[in-house]
Input
Amino acid sequence: MIKSFTQEYSVRHDDTDVTGRMSVPALGDCMLDIASLHANEIAWGIDQMQHGGLTWVIAGMKFIIHRMPRIDSRFKIETHVSAYSRISTQRDFVAFDDDGKIAEVSSEWLIINMENRRPVFINDFVPRLEEVCIAEGALPKYKHLRQSNAEERNRYARRIMYSDIDINRHLYSMRYLQMALDTFDVEYLERCNISEIDLNFIAEVLCGETVDVVRRSEGDVHQVEMMRDGSVVFRAEIWSAGFQPA
Output
């Protein structure tokens, strides 16, 4: 089995934000793409899973960002499974170019039954995990976040539309992150350096549902919650490392 998988990517115009650098959600898109490519190589791809009434979902992610590449630049991502248990696997990603590391990301994945939407025991459907796992040097896992006591700074409501959902018929994981970043002013995102992000995917959000998105901030630490009918379905913690020169 192929333990590690590497793919080259380029930063396209629609991958960038107002700074001319790749946005974090666009980088996340590339990581989900290479996760799918590797899973297909080892016969664990989402197509194979869905034929059996199952699918992969993400429980959480942790981004450690060193720098973001500029438009038209090229970089590579390497991915592998770094840990597993009966109900989840950890998949790590390292993005890099000729100048060194761009970002390191860890992610936790579950397999759920598509009919009842409940997790299943991974070993029952994905055998020989030990043959693909590279445990040495596993990246730090995401933090399980509790509600921040910081001051509320922004809140908005958002209805989930067709363009927001993915093959699993629920809100696409990087759309959660995009909606969290939408709580910031453009001027702030233009000048700050986002250095670390923890994402907690708590419950599925479906097309047609409306969510409230709330940001609470204290200094350079920001927590964003997404709520549906008063229940939290997602939390993110975003660390910014100060401002870039104007």
In short: Residues 164 and 175 are 7 Å apart (CA to CA). The domain at 1-142 is CATH 3.10.129.10 (Thiol Ester Dehydrase; Chain A).
